[in-house]
Write a structure and sequence with these properties.
The complex is a heterodimer of chains A (about 290) and B (about 550). Helices cover about 75% and strands about 0% of the residues of chain A. Chain A has about 290 residues and is an all-alpha fold. The two termini of chain A are about 35 Å apart. By secondary structure, chain B is of the alpha/beta class. Chain B folds into three domains: about 5-25 and about 30-35 and about 45-175 and about 355-390, D-Maltodextrin-Binding Protein, domain 2 (3-Layer(aba) Sandwich), CATH 3.40.190; about 180-350, D-Maltodextrin-Binding Protein, domain 2 (3-Layer(aba) Sandwich); about 480-540. Helices cover about 45% and strands about 15% of the residues of chain B. Chain B has 21 helices and 16 strands. In chain B, a hairpin with a 4-residue loop joins strand 6 (about 255) and strand 7. In chain B, about 45% of the residues are buried. The chains are: A mainly alpha (about 290), B alpha/beta (about 550). Chain B: This is Putative aldouronate transport system substrate-binding protein.
Chain lengths: ~290, ~550
């Protein structure tokens, strides 16, 4: 009986794994394949017409690396800012004796459901003089309310006695946070760093809105332009003399760019995984 | 992730700019401020500003030729016209979205290129766009081409309810036909057939192919997403004298009946029924792959290049880049050509606009001290023969050469759409010419300067066909437009759904009358009436 359940489980899970991984391996195979095989739909899991020239082409484009560097900078700075603000906010909210706590929570939650709309937001950022600066990327989305609530729940679960003891020993609020609470919250911190870093790494919309210089774009915009641009509205009903080039750059360069873009964040995952699992679980159970 | 929907954008910016609209909408156009305008500018003259000017412009970042500061285009432009363009850059992928946002927020640069007719409509009410038709007298090259090529009718299709137009479209000398069908000529030879001239021939050809290869669908089509049968039905509709496929999906669902001088509903026209019957017969007889209407382009291409089908929709570009390339790999003996569009009951005629996407100017431009110069500059760059040749081909002796007959050849070290494959430099990537932002329309000679011999042959056949009259304008005011959209969407959806069902045999063609009845129930009469009233009103008011 047990073994049968196991078999069913295994088959199901392997099925899920295949469905999940197939597109990924397909992209990897495409990235090493010759364009003509991709166009005629012959590339599945194994590269055909193996070559590395596409990697060389993409990696020799200076704009790609400038944008790549921007992504790294934006991700690091934005994650750092987000972690500081979110932690402070969440810690404060986790204290039941805080006056006006409900209002503060309300303010945060309100933004989950309502926003000013795209154009007012754009006008705001541009009137603040933030367009075409790194601040337009790292400030507007510094607090993710979802992450804030997860963190708040985690802090609420920490034994109060610890903090009281520290207070009796003469520590102030900041000391307690820095020396007692945070060291005990490594799991949730790691999880939040991962959440924030991944979302900033993947994000393109704020950059698209607020930046209009190539040398400031993150790599996601470079990638999106390459993919959506080549398959977008203009390729149907377009002007063959002007746009024929698009079809040629398309598939294998796209694949290579995708691989290069997701690689770093993919490599971080296994290392943060153990915090990640325990962190999310902890928050959930205690909540 | 947030998406800007049109409604979203409309609502927000409507509220924002209401005040601005009230104050500017009533202003009468005044003579343009002189500023740095060039004295004695006219047809055949090169615009040169008397002092150095800078004009802001929106520009996309094309994935195939991303903008570079050292493009010869910029420096040569400054040398010739004394104008420097200051660009706001937007990724090509989401150009329309940010273009709309910047216009709505009132922060768009004065010159906004790549505006497709119809896209400008949501911004007109707020008064941010310049009603450019009030100023075209100051654009001699534009006026010259409109008169010379008799484009007034084409321009009229752009007019809004106030009788003005806001887009300066790219102007073509002739209608440009590009889409047709790619056919395997080696199979034709094998069967002893000629390339089909009429739609009956087309049917017969597919039938002969099916007899020889009973296991395959001879015709498996692409360009079915998002409009099922987009290209195929459009061609068929043109031949029968109605709007189908892309033509139906991209416009209003009404057709101008020139004899009756009024608009009629497209989806119930007898001609439309004939189109549906023709396509249904192909599917029923196993000549056309039923997946044609739903499969992705890649799937259709793969069938064609692997020899599972012998006919597919094509344009000049896909013939070379998709089919020949793919076939060369799988079946080097296969030969394929793009046939002239088959002819139907309408005979050797075609329809089409000679205007394409173009530029809009922001209303705030008219307060610019150099407004007159701006108009002259736009006129020269986008509409003069010299400007168009410059934007497309660059500088003679550097990027191209011209022989005595006027034939243009790219310079030896310059590649342009495969005309000089393997050359170390590329006209678009390295010099910034042939850039979709600046190169639109132009004379047929200029358009065809990049065409291959075989494409020229196709063009010659197509250009010999007579153009049918264009529908007259019937612009709606804002309230009417809202009402029209509410009726139009369900009507179009119903037509498109049932077109597909009839063709695929999911619904019996005997039910055509029932289908027409269902459309009646969706306010068909009221909708058509609204359009006809708008047409009459426009005619009375603006001639």
């Amino acid at each position: 009986m047990v073994s049968r359940v196991r078999w069913v489980n295994a088959t199901l899970l392997i099925g899920v794994v295949v469905v999940t991984l197939y597109p990924f391996f397909n992209i990897v195979a495409r990235s090493f394949s010759a364009e003509k095989y991709i166009v005629s739909g012959q590339v599945n899991l194994w590269p055909k017409g193996f070559n590395l020239t596409t990697y060389q082409i993409v990696m020799s484009d200076p704009v790609f690396w400038i944008n790549y560097r921007n992504t790294v900078v934006y991700t690091v700075v934005a994650t750092a800012i987000s972690m500081v603000v979110t932690t402070c906010y969440a810690y404060v909210l986790s204290k039941p004796h805080l006056r006006g706590r409900k209002v503060l929570i309300g303010v945060a939650v309100f933004t989950m459901f309502f926003s000013g709309g795209l154009i007012p937001q754009y006008v705001l950022i541009s009137n603040l003089g933030l367009t075409n600066t790194i601040w337009s990327i790292v400030l507007p989305n510094a607090i993710s309310v979802f992450n804030l609530l997860v963190m708040k729940t985690f802090f609420e679960g920490l034994p109060r006695e610890l903090e009281e003891a520290a207070a009796i020993d003469g520590m102030n609020t900041y000391g307690i946070l820095a020396k007692i609470v945070l060291p005990l919250s490594k799991a949730v911190l790691a999880t939040m760093v991962l959440f924030y870093a991944v979302s900033f790494w993947n994000s393109w919309f704020p950059a698209f809105l607020y930046l209009d210089k190539i040398e400031m774009f993150p790599v996601t915009i470079y990638l999106r332009n390459l993919i959506a641009g080549a398959t977008g509205a203009e390729s149907a009903g377009a002007n063959p003399d002007v746009h024929s080039e698009i079809m040629q750059v398309a598939s294998n360069i796209q694949a290579v760019t995708i691989i290069l873009t997701i690689l770093p964040i993919l490599m971080i995952y296994p290392f943060v995984q153990r915090f990640f699992v325990s962190g999310v679980m902890l928050g959930a159970v205690k909540g | 992730m947030r998406q800007v929907t049109r409604r979203h954008a409309l609502l927000t910016f409507g509220a924002l700019t209401l005040a601005a609209a009230c104050s500017t909408a009533e202003e009468k156009p005044t003579a343009a401020a002189k500023g740095a305008a060039m004295e004695g500018y006219g047809v055949g003259k090169t615009f040169k500003a008397p002092q150095q000017l800078t004009f802001p412009i929106l520009h996309n970042i094309h994935p195939a030729y991303p903008v570079k500061d050292d493009w010869l285009f910029w420096s040569e432009l400054a040398k010739r016209t004394n104008v420097k363009l200051q660009t706001t850059l937007i990724p090509f992928s989401d150009y329309d979205q940010k273009k709309g946002l910047l216009i709505s927020a009132g922060q768009a640069p004065l010159i906004v290129p790549k505006m497709y007719p119809g896209q400008e409509v949501p911004y007109i009410a707020s008064g941010v766009l310049l009603p450019v038709s009030d100023y075209v007298e100051q654009m001699p090259h534009f006026m010259d081409k409109v008169t010379k090529w008799q484009l007034q009718g084409d321009l009229d299709t752009l007019r809004q309810n106030d009788g003005k137009y806001y887009v300066l479209p790219g102007l073509h000398e002739k209608v440009w036909s590009d889409y047709s069908f790619a056919v395997r000529t080696d199979i034709l030879q094998e069967l002893g057939l000629q390339a089909p001239k009429t739609w009956d021939d087309f049917h017969a050809m597919l039938k002969a192919m099916k007899e020889k290869y009973p296991d395959e669908y001879p015709f498996s089509d692409r360009w079915g997403i998002p409009t099922p049968g987009g290209a195929f039905l459009q061609q068929l509709g043109n031949a029968y004298g109605t709007n189908a496929g892309w033509n139906f999906a991209n416009g209003r669902p009404v057709f101008w009946d020139d004899a009756a001088q009024k608009f009629i509903f497209t989806g119930t026209m007898p001609q439309y029924k004939q189109v549906v019957e023709y396509a249904a017969a192909l599917v029923k007889e196993g000549l056309m792959d039923p997946e044609s209407f739903t499969q992705k382009d890649d799937a259709a291409n793969a069938k064609f290049t692997s020899g599972k089908s012998f006919v597919i929709s094509s344009n000049a570009q896909s013939l070379v880049n998709d089919y020949r390339k793919g076939l060369a790999e799988n079946n080097p003996k296969a030969t394929v050509v793009k046939i002239p569009v088959p002819v139907g009951p309408m005979g050797e005629t075609r329809t089409g606009l000679r205007t394409e996407n173009g530029i809009v100017l922001m209303a705030k431009a008219k307060d610019d001290p150099n407004f007159a110069a701006l108009l002259q500059f736009v006129d020269w760059l986008f509409y003069s023969d010299e400007g168009q040749l410059f934007a497309k081909w660059g500088v003679e002796g550097v990027t191209y050469t011209k022989d005595a007959s006027g034939k243009i050849t790219p310079a030896k070290d310059v590649d342009m759409v495969g005309l000089n494959p393997g050359a170390p430099k590329h006209l678009q990537k390295d010099f910034g010419f042939g850039n979709g932002v600046f190169a639109y329309g132009g004379t047929t000679a200029l358009l065809q300067s990049t065409f291959s011999e075989e494409e020229l042959e196709f063009q010659n056949v197509m250009n010999a066909r007579q153009n049918r009259p264009l529908p007259p304008p019937a612009p709606l005011d804002e309230l009417e437009q809202e009402q029209a959209t509410l009726w139009e969407t369900p009507l179009k959806d119903h037509v498109q759904q049932n077109t597909l069902n009839f063709i695929l045999g999911k619904r019996d063609l005997a039910e055509w009358d029932a289908y027409a009845k269902e459309l009646e129930g969706k306010n068909l009469a009221a909708y058509v009436d609204l359009i006809n009233k708008a047409h009459v009103r426009f005619k009375e008011k603006h001639g």
